[in-house]
């Protein structure tokens, strides 16, 4: 079978091609799958998409008309896919249920540490031969409190690093993870976590119950010098409320690898275009806000695991198997 893979980064391409060879043929395109690029998928029974693909009802209908029967998304998140409509159309949809949790957890710590020690500001000054330390004062993480919102595999890996720093661990989730308790984590109500934590990191999926989980009220409850990091999904945080809190001089630093309106912006070169998203532009104007473009999972280890899982999803589709990666099973 020949598979069309869209939204493939240049570094990702050889890893994806190596994983599929010799079992299947794969055509890799850097182009992301949108309404304008859907004709590229015509004739491909299996299409592998990135998390930035726009797979709403009209897009799914266009794919089906072109002969697509399998969507194998190369990510854990799938809020960009209309699963109900996919099922009505008889499409099979699969995702990557899990990959290296360390990639995302370590990147979350990269953001947190860079913010705490003012690394970006310091590096910028050094490049201009300004060696002053004014405004670069950080804090020891040791002895302080970290709040981990979402204690699955990634949250657990993040908490393990926090324990290595010698931090007090607070956690919140709908279920208690014994592995986190073994690390010394205390599970508390979310409001208490927001009040007591010096560093807060988000590791929950996006669903209706977690949309804007961190909004105006919870931002107001946080310490004025808290560091807030989000490497999960952008809409977990109300970006407008976050901007307002920063304008009031609250929050010690914000690290965002995701943004709620990132579709069509992240992964693209927009350097020659006018920034039309006033909220994103406003966030990036703050010295204590560090924004990256959804790169937390972008390690060789994670990408290789994602590629291998995508191959398995294609094989499972052909064999009619349902696995933990199956979001919409193959029609009888």
From TrEMBL:
EC assignment: 1.1.1.28
Domain D-isomer specific 2-hydroxyacid dehydrogenase NAD-binding: 110-296
One GO MF term attached to the UniProt entry: D-lactate dehydrogenase (NAD+) activity
UniProt keywords, alphabetically: NAD, Oxidoreductase
CDD domains membership: LDH_like_2
The UniProt record lists the keyword DNA-binding: no
Class in the EC hierarchy, top level: oxidoreductase
UniProt name for this protein: 2-hydroxyacid dehydrogenase
